[in-house]
Design a protein that fits this description.
By secondary structure, the chain is mostly helical. It has 14 helices and two strands. Helix 4 packs antiparallel against helix 7, helix 5 runs parallel beside helix 11 and helix 8 runs antiparallel to helix 9.
Length: about 300
């Protein structure tokens, strides 16, 4: 008797998957290489935070190792703690308003019945995003000027005394937050409008049949269906809790508003590039990165734990 032989089954699943996915990975490879070169390789320079760095000796030269002295020096600098407080306050309000205002505006735009009017409004609010802070800052300096600015001229009609928005510690933080929201909230609406357009129209029809008015449809249909994208944007934004916007603040602030306008990035710029204290500046940058990593890790965990949402 001859043994019955079973046909050999060749597993081509992995090979087929590799051939199918290979073009996408090849397209992604240049971006991965660029990110590695410009984002990960420079992390080797973090060793400067623990050295008394002298540029003439080079990065790989024989530098004096001082341990945590740069961090201790930073902690004892009153201006550093002031810059940290300013950064947290400005970044916190930017994060909150960049979540709330785009959500509100995107919902309102979605409720407009006229398509051409909706597109026109969306284009107008999106335009400032394309302006750099150098250009936009120059426009703001002219608009907010206490002597000839349009804002103070308008307030003067109602008998309000001229306000030095960019030169007063009472107004500078408010001005920075408000102008940043004005410039960027149009970009945020695109993300939320895309989420709204993916909502199944039958949910609105069912809510209408049940007697829900427009406001009730927003509360019970629109916002719940936007929950995932809102959580995603919130998680990603918390990683910027110590990024208050160097480009904006650098183009708008002056020494007279350092008390409320100096942030960690501008502080690092002055102490590192202008005063040539590279070790101290690197220590502050490393502290920023560690805190940002902690915040985004905690926020990701909370999003998974309480909203059952995963980014990866």
């Amino acid at each position: 008797m001859t043994k019955s032989t079973q046909p050999t089954v060749i597993n081509t699943g992995k090979k087929h998957w590799f051939r199918k996915e290979l073009p996408f990975h090849l397209f992604l490879l240049p971006a991965v290489i660029i990110v590695f070169i410009y984002m990960y390789v420079p992390m080797g320079g973090l060793i400067i935070a623990f050295q008394k760095f002298i540029p003439a000796k080079g990065l790989f030269g024989k530098q004096k190792w001082i341990g945590l002295d740069n961090f201790v020096f930073l902690y004892n600098l009153p201006n550093a703690m002031q810059a940290l407080r300013n950064t947290i306050v400005i970044a916190f309000w930017k994060i909150v308003l960049h979540l709330v205002i785009p959500i509100m505006v995107s919902i309102l735009l979605n409720e407009l019945s006229s398509a051409w009017y909706r597109r026109s409004v969306q284009t107008l609010i999106y335009l400032p995003h394309f302006l750099s802070w150098i250009i936009f800052g120059g426009i703001l300096i002219d608009i907010l000027s206490p002597s000839s600015g349009l804002v103070n001229r308008f307030l003067g009609i109602f008998g309000v005394k001229p306000i030095f928005f960019l030169g007063s510690n009472d107004w500078f933080q408010f001005t920075v937050i408000a102008t940043d929201v004005w410039k960027e909230f149009g970009f945020g609406t695109i993300v939320y409008l895309a989420a709204i357009t993916n909502i199944d129209p039958t949910q609105y029809e069912a809510a209408t049949i049940d007697g829900a008015n427009r406001f009730q449809r927003i509360i019970h249909v629109t916002i719940p269906n936007m929950r995932m994208i809102i959580v995603l944007m919130m998680v990603l934004s918390l990683g910027n809790v110590l990024n208050a916007g160097f480009d904006q603040v650098y183009n708008l602030y002056s020494p007279q508003v350092y008390e409320t306008g100096d942030i960690l990035d501008t502080f690092i710029y002055r102490i590192g590039l202008l005063e040539a204290q590279f070790g101290v500046a690197t220590a502050m940058g490393m502290f920023k990165s560690l805190v940002s990593t902690l915040f985004i890790s905690v926020s990701y965990y909370c999003a998974y734990k309480f909203a059952d949402y995963r980014i990866f």
